[in-house]
């Protein structure tokens, strides 16, 4: 069993909080973490996040700050920017957005006026809240029009996207999403965006690590702006980046600061720089391809066990399971699996007849377990646990869940997680 990490000052100052952190370390060590937007960052990224860089204010950009004392901060941010540009092949990078949602908000601020039309994939079809969905500020302050996937294929219908774009003439088009198990065809979106003269944004929050590692095509040659979080497959700290062609650099920078944000989180910028250095190494390419290989092997094993997968499988790190045929609601399954030591999230499936807070599906992914070293060889076992867990949820067999939990912890004890202690 892993021991809790040593945080002596934290334990002395705030034992209550330290105990919660220790419990979380144990939880992350002992469970199969399958939420596809999560990962394990390296010890180096954790250390960068915990540095005195958090003490420094630095509104502005390197060489153009509103505060003094930037002797070390400027080179830190410049390192992150240059590494982002090199890794993704972009003309320009802004590493200051606090997270993915503010990054997307900055894109709207740069390219659209309130009330203008913006277009994205609808949330229940796999898009993100910030792609113009109604409850989000982006859907309230702009006129959001939304495309989806085809009922028969579970994939984007580019005829529908083109027709909608021609009819609605959006200023900004977002492609990418949070529950998209298939390759995003950036070139097809670019053709449509060009035709209607819209700014095309690729939101690669989920797949940035796959793009960086060469396991998903890059949007950079095709789109105006790339938006990404840094904490999902890219395996960095919680944060975000915007990348673009030179022509949009000024507009985007101005939108992030002073348009939307104040001082950048320099400890996060430092950790982003570290993560980008890690992502440029050959072993990260291996990681990215292994994430996809694991997801494909997992999808195949699930199909063999009679699971219904949205779009019939996966091209990336993510598998969306429609549990309708198993007669278990997504939320019931997700909560049971949590008790079985398998952490997933319940999720809508396209054309879901159920409500968003109790939908028909669960969303799973392989980034975290691949970071621990699990391979295709383990995926039949993972699929078997998922089936036993869902079946136990159906029958209300609590003891079966406890058995799975013990088996999961037993396997994982042989695969230590980055950034977490081992026994
Ligand atoms: C995760 C995600 C975001 C938002 O990121 P936060 O950091 O949670 O704000 C934006 N877009 C997509 C497609 C995402 O998956």
TrEMBL record:
Sites of N6-(pyridoxal phosphate)lysine modification: 232
Name of the top EC class for this enzyme: transferase
Catalysed reactions, as listed in the record: (6R)-5,10-methylene-5,6,7,8-tetrahydrofolate + glycine + H2O = (6S)-5,6,7,8-tetrahydrofolate + L-serine
Entry annotated with the keyword NAD: no
InterPro entries per UniProt: PyrdxlP-dep_Trfase, PyrdxlP-dep_Trfase_major, PyrdxlP-dep_Trfase_small, Ser_HO-MeTrfase, Ser_HO-MeTrfase-like, Ser_HO-MeTrfase_PLP_BS, SHMT-like_dom
Domain of life: Bacteria
Cofactor(s) needed: pyridoxal 5'-phosphate
A single BP term in Gene Ontology: tetrahydrofolate interconversion
Tagged with keyword Protease: no
Known pathway: One-carbon metabolism; tetrahydrofolate interconversion; Amino-acid biosynthesis; glycine biosynthesis; glycine from L-serine: step 1/1
Site (Plays an important role in substrate specificity): 231
E.C. number(s) listed in UniProt: 2.1.2.1
Binding of (6S)-5,6,7,8-tetrahydrofolate, residues: 123, 127-129, 246
Keywords: Amino-acid biosynthesis, Cytoplasm, Methyltransferase, One-carbon metabolism, Pyridoxal phosphate, Transferase
Function: Catalyzes the reversible interconversion of serine and glycine with tetrahydrofolate (THF) serving as the one-carbon carrier. This reaction serves as the major source of one-carbon groups required for the biosynthesis of purines, thymidylate, methionine, and other important biomolecules. Also exhibits THF-independent aldolase activity toward beta-hydroxyamino acids, producing glycine and aldehydes, via a retro-aldol mechanism. Thus, is able to catalyze the cleavage of L-allo-threonine.
Record's subunit section: Homodimer.
Family per similarity comment: Belongs to the SHMT family.
Listed name of the protein: Serine hydroxymethyltransferase
Gene: glyA
């Amino acid at each position: 069993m892993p021991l809790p990490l040593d945080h002596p000052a934290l334990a002395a100052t705030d034992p209550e909080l330290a105990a919660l952190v220790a419990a979380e370390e144990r939880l992350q060590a002992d469970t199969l973490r399958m939420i596809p937007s999560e990962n394990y960052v390296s010890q180096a990224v954790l250390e960068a996040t915990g540095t005195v860089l958090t003490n420094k204010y630095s509104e502005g950009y390197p060489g153009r700050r509103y505060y003094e004392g930037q002797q070390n901060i400027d080179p830190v941010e410049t390192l992150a920017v240059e590494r982002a540009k090199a890794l993704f092949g972009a003309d320009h990078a802004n590493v200051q957005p606090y997270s993915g949602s503010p990054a997307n908000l900055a894109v709207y601020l740069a390219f659209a006026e309130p009330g203008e039309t913006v277009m994205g994939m609808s949330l229940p079809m796999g898009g993100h809240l910030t792609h113009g969905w109604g409850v989000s500020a982006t859907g309230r302050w702009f006129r959001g029009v939304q495309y989806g996937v085809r009922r028969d294929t579970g994939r984007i219908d580019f005829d529908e996207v083109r027709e909608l774009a021609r009819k609605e003439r959006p200023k900004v088009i977002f492609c990418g999403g949070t529950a998209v198990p298939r390759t995003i065809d950036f070139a097809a979106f670019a053709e449509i965006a060009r035709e209607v003269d819209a700014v095309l944004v690729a939101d690669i929050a989920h797949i940035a690590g796959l793009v960086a590692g060469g396991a998903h095509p890059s949007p950079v040659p095709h789109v105006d702006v790339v938006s990404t979080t840094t904490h999902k497959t890219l395996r960095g700290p919680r944060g975000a980046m915007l990348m673009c062609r030179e022509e949009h650099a000024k507009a985007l920078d101005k939108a992030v600061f002073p348009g939307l944000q104040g001082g950048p989180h320099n400890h996060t910028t430092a950790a982003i720089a570290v993560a980008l250095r890690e992502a440029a190494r050959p072993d990260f390419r291996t990681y990215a391809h292994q994430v996809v290989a694991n997801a494909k092997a997992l999808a195949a094993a699930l199909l063999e066990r009679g699971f219904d997968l949205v779009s019939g499988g996966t091209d990336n790190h993510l598998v969306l399971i429609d549990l309708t045929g198993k007669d278990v609601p997504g939320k019931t399954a997700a909560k049971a699996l949590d008790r079985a030591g398998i952490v997933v999230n319940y999720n809508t499936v396209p054309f879901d007849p159920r409500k968003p807070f109790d939908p028909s599906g669960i969303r799973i992914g392989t980034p975290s377990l691949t970071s621990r070293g699990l391979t295709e060889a383990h995926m039949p076992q993972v699929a078997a646990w998922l089936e036993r867990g869902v079946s136990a949820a159906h029958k209300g067999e609590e003891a079966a869940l406890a058995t799975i939990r013990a088996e999961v912890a037993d396997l994982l004890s042989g695969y230590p997680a980055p950034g977490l202690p081992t026994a």
